[in-house]
Each structure stands twice: as structure tokens, then as C-alpha cells.
Amino acid sequence: MKVLFIINPNSGAGSSAATIARIQEAAALKNISTCILYTTGTRDDEMIRKEIDLYKPDRVVAGGGDGTIQLVARNLIGTNLPIVLLPLGSANGLATSLDIPKDDEALADYIFSDLQAMPLDLLRINDIHICVHLADIGINGMMVKEYEEGGHSGMLGYARHVVHAVKETPLMKYTIKTEKETLEQEGYMLAFANANMYGTGIQISEGSVHDGMFEIRNIPKISWIDFIKAGLTKFNIFIDKHMFTDVISCKQAEVFIDRKVDFQIDGEYIGEVNYLKIEMLPSAITILIP
Questions:
Q1: 3-class secondary structure per residue, 205-239
Q2: How far, in Å, CA of 277 to CA of 123, rounded?
Q3: Beta-sheet strands, E only, within 88-152
Q4: Which residue of 43, 62, 205, 227 has the smallest Cβ count within 10 Å?
Q5: C-alpha pair distances (Å), 96 with each of 4, 56, 165, 199, 211
Q6: Mind telling me which GO cellular component terms the entry cites (predicted)?
């Protein structure tokens, strides 16, 4: 078996070197061929496609957080190559949803095991962006933006921007059009979820990553008491499910926003938007899970 690793060396707050070393030891013992490609943030898509063509792996391991998984996943669309998740990020939302092990020793065994193949849905946003776990506008989008601009890593770095984002994000008004209905809502954050769980383990919905549907959830109001009780995670501070309104399940949606607001996908800042088109890409790639 040949396994290609795509590793983000900057994921999470700590170094992934020990985890990678343990995995390489396990590969040597099992006589498995491995190749490691580290992302740099420059021409990563091109380098991944090139390495796949040259190395011809049997499976591709995405080592990092949800942003790294998204990077690998979008380059596997249209191929028969399965993806394997190696959770090295701070919250690891998609890996948590799929009950992927996070302990170093368990990871080394899991990566090379006979895993179960399962289809993985993806979201396409505004015709150009891919989402594997969660996208949102509003408070969390502003925090992701300030987190990236600040250059701080880990949860403490993310926490630096919490208070400012909550104070500065305006109340948004939006029209949500799905294949079933049109809704007028207002709030401080609107989330679009492919998976059913945050990295904290809090349930988003009863959906799954292979049901051909995604979920929309709105935060219509937020008080400081609720906010303090909620806590925070790397990619979404809102871990109290009671802060959200009812779930909207759909296959496609358009969102018209009354102003330009901060927008993030899988923990990576995209920019300001006042319109979103979200489409489900059912069974877009194959994922291997325990």
C-alpha cells in the first residue's frame, strides 16, 4: 500500500512532529510506502495534484484541521482516491463528527488499517469555494479574520479576539431561500453545516456527512451571560446548541444579507460578502473511517 500524507505544519498550537514520527515507525513495521508533502500556503493545490500524479497513492491522508481537510478534499473530487483524516488542528470538527481517534498511538494504527469506505458530501459556495465541515457569517467570521491577522496560534490566540468580535459584529438581516421555502431572519451569526457536530462534541443537528443535505442555523441574539457560559473552540465559539434557532435542512440555498459581513469556511477567512449561494455536492469523494 502507498500512502500520501498532506501535512499542514502550522495546524494546532503544538508541533505534529512526534505524531508523524510515530506514524512513520508504524509504516516501516508494516512495510508500507509513504510520502509526505508539507503545505506552505503557496501553490498547494498544484503541488498536491502533481504529487498524486507522480506518486500514485492508494489513499491520501489529510493531516491538519478542517482547512487542511478541505484543501485535500477539493483536489480529490473526480478521482477514485479516498481521503483519511489525521486530526492535528485545534478543534478538528469533521474528525470529531466521524469519531476519528486523536491519540498518537491509536492514530498510527488507524491510518494503515482496513478502514470502512463511506461517501462524503461537500458544499460548494458561490461556485468557487468548497466546504467540508462548517462555514458561517458574522461573529465567528470576524474572529477568524482577526485570528489570522494577529498571527497568534492555538486557542489562547483565538480567545484574544473574542470580546472585540462580539462587540463589533452588527445585527444582520438576511433572506434565506431554499428549495423548500423563503425565510426572513436576523441575527449575529448564520452557520452552514455539512457535519452534525462541532469539535467540542456538541450536536449541530441530526444530519450526517453523507445524507445529501446540509443544515443552516441562526443565532438571533447573544447575551454576555450566554456567551460566557458557551465557552469557545478554535473554529466556532458557540458550543451551546440552545443559542441557535431551529435547523433548516436543505440541498441548496441563497442568502441575501443587508450589508457586507465577514465570512469564513472551515476556519479560514474568505472575505466580506453580502450574498451566498450554497449547493450540496452529494457523495463528492470517498472517506475512510474506523
A1: CCCCCCCCCEEEEEECCCCHHHHHHHCCCCCCCCC
A2: 10
A3: 116-125, 129-131, 134-138
A4: 43
A5: 22, 29, 26, 6, 17
A6: plasma membrane
Contact 218, 185 (CB under 8 A): yes
> What's the pLDDT tens digit per position in 61-77?
999 999 999 999 999 99
**Least confident span in 35-39, 95-99, 101-105:** 101-105
At residue 91, does pLDDT exceed 50? yes
How far is 135 from 28, CA to CA, in rounded Å? 38
Residue with cell 465567528: 140
Instruction: Please tell me the distance from the alpha carbon of residue 160 to that of residue 71, in angstroms, as a whole number.
Output: 27
Residue with cell 465577514: 262
- How large a percentage of the chain has pLDDT more than 70? 79
From the list 39, 98, 103, 104, the residue with the least C-alpha distance to 72 is 39
> What domains, with CATH codes, occur in the chain?
2-121 (3.40.50.10330), 129-282 (2.60.200.40)
- Of 86, 25, 39, the C-alpha closest to 60 is 86
Helix (H, G, I), strand (E, B) or coil at 103: coil
